[in-house]
Amino acid sequence: MTTASIRPRAWPALSGALASTIGFWLLAALAGAAVLAAFLLVSNEYFFFAGYVVLQYVVLATAWNILGGYTGYVNFGVGAFFASGAYSTVVLSKLSQLPLPVMILCAGVVSGVIGLGMGYLTLRLRGVFFAIATLALAIVLQTLIVNWDYVGGSRGVYVIRPEQAPLLGSYVQYLFLLMLILAVAAVAIARTIERSRLGLGFAAIRDDEPAAEAGGVPTLRLKLIATVLSGALMGMAGAPLPYYVTYLDPDSSFSLAYAVNSVAMPLIGGTTSWAGPIIGAVLLGTVQQLATVTISSALNLMIVGLLLIAFVIIAPNGIVGLVTAWRRRRSG
Amino acid sequence: MAISFDLAINALVAGLLLGGFYAAVTVGVTIAFGMLDIVNIAHPAFIMLGSYLAYLGARDLGLDPILGGILAMPAFFLLGMAVYQIYYFCFERRGEEAMQGLAFFFGLLFVAEVGLILAFGVDYRFVEAPYIGPSLKFGIFELPLRMLVPFLCSLAMVALLQLYLSRSFIGRAILAVSQDRDALRLMAVDPIRIKRIAFGIAIATAALAGAFLIIIQPVQPSVGRDYLGRVFAICVLGGMTSFPGMVAGAMLIGIVESLTATFYGPSWAPAVAFGFLLLALAVRPSGILGR
After folding, report:
1. B171 within a domain of the structure (yes/no)
2. Which of A20, A203, B116, B198 is the most buried (most CB within 10 A)?
3. Taking CB atoms and an 8 Å limit, are A299 and B118 in contact across chains?
């Protein structure tokens, strides 16, 4: 209402955008509820285990895409942000009795701050240096964790999953529900950014950074916002992990597999729209869940790597790009 | 005090030797990333391939690992040219190298690592050679031949490359392509062909560097990842394009890593190079010898 009174002429356009946003949130909430209902109907604990991983990848892929897809800065250090979220939960669970949702928010703050520091050091340079520095960040953080005995060092740490879930159902179902909320929130944030001034600024950076800078876009500030948001979401995706796996060690939590998946999923789905990472994550995540039970886990990572290479060569705009091109060809 | 002085001196010498080896590992990145502007983050994966080829040569044919590495170089040269051709057609020509190109190399890195795991498992592999084991002693200095031989061979390889780049026609063209691609075209030289050859050379060095690696330490497929940050740290520290700068950067990282491992424990060593990289990027992106 206040916006309308300041800029009366913008009101009709704004109301359209507002209606579409409200509609999207309703749709997102409905989609979330539908997924939950479907899983409750099946009521097989394994599906919650598998679904949790797929949803975790929806969050990671969407978070990666906020920086990678919208501004064009490639982050290979997904494992670092993800694991710092997981380890902040480990520390908090040793120090306190906080409820898990609060721990998730704290994890978001921790990895957001890491993103800020990292971005401040490297985002003034060319994009490739940022990419290389993120690779380095993962190793630095892993070395710190390996040498930090309080969180188990290289031996790893056991986290006891509470017997009772705070809501109905088992604890795994509770974790699933939290990850579902995170996934919906991440996608909603991504979509909101895409349609805001912020998203416009991000796109300007992606297309031509010197021109954006010359045009008065505060590029460094926008890049920092993207890095912090993206890092915070990755950390939040990692926060429930200790309770999911109950045994956390540096090698598996910093695994390069998280980075490969989080890069591959948006690139396969399509990086320019919020739908791309979801498509990529659901597709690749589900295939991997099926492949892990049927064939070896090494082979299934091989498939992800090969798909990534194939897609960047053949379809650089991902599945969303393929669909748009196909539609355009049909209409014109 | 006397013991810790001996320890420090020997750690320093070990670091110097390690630095020489790091120069061999980095030279391919200096060519590809520094001169050609191709962000080949898959370079460590090619080094691992080189290590395993040297291992196979030693196990099945009884070849000396360094000889095996040299014999593998032509094949790696062709492989490098092929990879560049794909990279050029799919990314560089379309102007998509920033994101898709990076993702391509990232995918290669990952596929190579998983491929090696599928083929060889995650057990550590090592080679036998007469110079693995004994060391030379000069007073308090102790030079393990296992380190000294790769050190000398590395420096020889870098020196030969430097000679090639500064003396031969193609070498000078490679230096020229790194400075001004369009000017090269005006001289009736095809920059794409020059870049293809240069990238082939960069990958060929990985074959030999891989052989050095398996002489220095037992390897398993994910060892390559430790070199990822190290090579880029050295390349940036060295000022991206200069070989002398790169050797200096490699020695610096080698010495600091060796001192860290000796006095704080080996588990801290991996963070050193990455710390340097972050520091260099933040404070001095033009490198230690840069202007």
Report:
1. yes
2. B198
3. yes
Tokens of A25: 């949130």
**Using the beta-carbon criterion (under 8 Å), do A132 and B111 form an inter-chain contact?**
no
At B114-125, the pLDDT tens digits run 999 999 988 899
Q: Domain limits at B114?
A: 2-283
Identify the closest residue of chain B to A131 by CA–CA distance: B102
Q: Are A52 and A179 in contact (CB under 8 A)?
A: yes
Q: C-alpha angle with apex B271: A233 to A158, nearest 5 degrees?
A: 55
Secondary structure of residue B127 in the 3-state scheme: coil
Please give the interface size between A and B, counted as residue pairs whose CB atoms are below 8 Å apart.
Answer: 127
Helix/strand/coil percentages in chain A, nearest 5: 80, 0, 15
Q: Do B108 and A309 touch (CB under 8 A)?
A: yes
- If 0-12 CB within 10 Å is exposed, 13-18 middle and 19+ buried, where does residue B148 land? middle
Question: Does residue B251 form part of some domain?
Answer: yes
- The residue behind tokens 């340097």 is B276
Please list every residue in chain A whose beta carbon sits closer than 8 Å to the beta carbon of residue B229: 132, 135-136, 139
Count of structural domains within chain B: 1
- The DSSP annotation for B3-46 comes to HHHHHHHHHHHHHHHHHHHHHHHHHHHIIIIIIT----TTHHHH
Decide if A167 contacts A40 (C-beta within 8 A).
no
Query: For tokens 């879930």, what's the residue?
Result: A165
pLDDT tens digits along B245-279: 999 999 999 999 998 888 888 888 878 877 887 77
What's this model's pTM, rounded to 2 decimal places?
0.88
Amino acid identity at A91: V
* ipTM of predicted complex: 0.86
* CB atoms A135 and B229 under 8 Å: yes
Mean of pLDDT over chain B: 88
Residue with tokens 């498992």: B121
Q: Is B78 on the interface with A (CB under 8 A)?
A: no
Q: pLDDT tens, B117-158?
A: 999 988 899 888 888 888 888 777 788 888 999 999 999 999
Task: Residue B281: list chain A partners with CB under 8 A.
Answer: 121-122, 125, 129, 133
| Residue B289 located in a structural domain | no
Nearest to B127 by CA among B50, B74, B231: B50
B35 part of a folded domain: yes
Measure in Å the smallest separation between the Cα of B227 and chain A Cα atoms: 10
Contact A133/B267, CB-based, under 8 Å? no
